[in-house]
Amino acid sequence: MGFPLIGETGHWLLQGSGFQSSRREKYGNVFKTHLLGRPLIRVTGAENVRKILMGEHHLVSTEWPRSTRMLLGPNTVSNSIGDIHRNKRKVFSKIFSHEALESYLPKIQLVIQDTLRAWSSHPEAINVYQEAQKLTFRMAIRVLLGFSIPEEDLGHLFEVYQQFVENVFSLPVDLPFSGYRRGIQARQILQKGLEKAIREKLQCTQGKDYSDALDLLIESSKEHGKEMTMQELKDGTLELIFAAYATTASASTSLIMQLLKHPTVLEKLREELRAHGILHSGGCPCEGTLRLDMLSGLRYLDCVIKEVMRLFTPISGGYRTVLQTFELDGFQIPKGWSVMYSIRDTQDTAPVFKDVNVFDPDRFSQARSEDKDGRFHYLPFGGGVRTCLGKHLAKLFLKVLAVELASTSRFELATRTFPRITLVPVLHPVDGLSVKFFGLDSNQNKILPETEAMLSATV
Ligand code: HEM
After folding, report:
1. DSSP code of 453?
2. Of the residues 54, 372, 384, 395, which has the maximum number of CB atoms within 10 A of its CB?
3. Binding positions for heme (predicted)?
4. pLDDT digits (tens, 9 = 90+) for 174-183
5. What is the phi/psi pair of residue 332, to 5°?
6. Every domain of the chain and the residues it spans
7. Tens digits of per-residue pLDDT, 301-338?
8. CB 237 within 8 Å of CB 198
9. Local structure of residue 435 (DSSP, 8 states)
């Protein structure tokens, strides 16, 4: 259980994935530790995880570490329980419907095309993780929420957001200079900025050619008979940015890293796109070329994204509190304790995956479908009633990124070796990932003024 108060938090932060695996090897799939200011039982293995995920609301209930709960706020989907949770999910599900995704798609494609063009025209190597964070933040603010915040303010908001995310998992000690205090300060600034953006948006509805997630959220809450208060809207938008930004930036970076490491995979992807008439040369920065049905026909692309999410799953696991004592793998899990179900460790030890450490997208092909035996071996988006609400949006974003990378960019690792990976707050390369991008056809690299501004230090 480690030291008083801090428990094994230091070991956990320093050892990365080794923390979980070394203790699992010593104690088995269910063991206790002490992290982020509280005792915790960590659970690995499909059968054990199934029991936790299917036991939501009667055996267990969501309970993120105190820092996460306090910083995200009480009105969020991930912090709510019981009927409130069920109702919130109904209201939020409208923003991830098929029609909603279809309407965001052209905007997502445009933001990605624009970003890749800027990366390709940049004379030096790009820090991919840092730029992917900017890209997903921009996507969340501009496309998902439809905010028209001036570039300069957006840059400032991004910096505050980074401070917020860095401290979402911190010891809940509210002292000057503590991570938790910095997180609280960041939350206050963000809430102020979001309130301003929401008010401006509600006043100005002209010039919009699609309904963004915030429009749909407000509409959906009215349809469900409960108009959202300003505080609920602020917490809701903060949660959406948080959920979309760090996870998707992590997966985008891992995708680029794997395409770099495995040129044959990239070539096979290009072949598939070519066969479907989707591979383009980047000459047309127009929006609207991709549609959902075109993407869903791309089987190999689907396998690549699934494999990235298996081997480089952004989130380690999910947190719960025990509502009634129950048994798991021969151990008693006492009422009132905290439990963390492990996504990464469960996937890394799943017997259904052959050569589990090898990047092999074909394991998800129709012929092999290694994930077909038991759905709790593969859970990058969690499972049960708390399955990720934004998983289709996240996969859509990653697919568009892969299509655009394959179509318009040549890219090379700018360092001698690939970087080390760390896991907190989400999986990412320790020093970013340094990559030099080149457009496939440099004559066609026209940069839009907005993108030029974006690369110069702001978002
Ligand atoms: C690659 C990207 C993503 C990954 C790996 C991911 C992963 C997850 C996981 C594992 C959970 C379940 C946590 C638990 O069991 O407690 C979750 C929940 C959630 N995700 Fe995602 N997510 C991603 C992207 C997104 C996006 C883009 C959004 C929305 C814009 C989103 C919104 C949410 C929300 C609202 C929840 C809470 C659901 C609930 O408690 O009922 N996620 N996500």
Report:
1. H
2. 395
3. 388
4. 899 899 999 9
5. -90, 130
6. 9-458
7. 999 999 999 999 999 999 999 999 999 999 999 999 99
8. yes
9. E
- Please name the residue whose Cα sits nearest to atom 18 of ligand 1: 388
Pick the atom of ligand 1 nearest to 240's CA. 30
Residue 264 phi, psi dihedral angles, 5° rounding: -70, -35
Q: Does 247 sit in the ligand 1 pocket, CB within 6 Å?
A: yes
Is domain 9-458 annotated with CATH 1.10.630.10? yes
- Strand 338-342 and strand 38-43: pairing? parallel
Q: Establish whether residue 380 lines the binding site of ligand 1, counting it when its CB lies within 6 angstroms of any ligand atom.
A: yes
Q: Is 388 annotated as a binding residue?
A: yes
Q: Is the pTM of this model over 0.85?
A: yes
Q: Is 89 in the pocket of ligand 1 (CB under 6 A)?
A: yes
* Distance (Å) from CA 279 to ligand 1 centroid: 30
Checking if the pLDDT of 126 tops 50, the result is yes
Task: Count the neighbouring beta carbons within 10 Å of the beta carbon of residue 416.
Answer: 5
SS3 166: helix
Shortest-distance Cα residue to atom 9 of ligand 1 = 381
Pocket test for ligand 1, best of 69, 388, 399, 427 (most atoms within 8 A of CB): 388
The yes-or-no verdict on residue 443 having pLDDT over 80 is no
430 with 424: CB under 8 angstroms?
no
- 389 CA → ligand 1 middle, Å: 6
Q: What integer pLDDT is reported at residue 183 of this predicted model?
A: 94
Per-residue model confidence (pLDDT) at position 286: 53
Q: Is the pLDDT of residue 168 over 80?
A: yes
Q: CB under 8 Å to 367, separation ≥6 — which residues?
A: none
Band of the pLDDT at 448, cuts 50, 70, 90?
A: very low
257 lines ligand 1 (CB under 6 A): no
Strands 317-322 and 326-328: unpaired
Q: Is the peptide bond before 425 cis (omega within 30 degrees of 0)?
A: yes
Token pair, residue 1, equals 């259980």
Give the residue, by CA position, lying nearest to ligand 1 atom 16. 318
Give 204's pLDDT tier (boundaries 50, 70, 90): confident
C-alpha span between 270 and 268 (Å, rounded): 5
Structure tokens at 308: 């990235």
Is the CB of 392 within 6 Å of ligand 1? no
Nearest protein Cα to ligand 1, atom 12: 382
Closest residue to atom 41 of ligand 1, CA basis: 386
Does 314 contact ligand 1 (Cβ within 6 A)? yes
- Residue 62 Cβ inside 6 Å of ligand 1? The answer reads yes
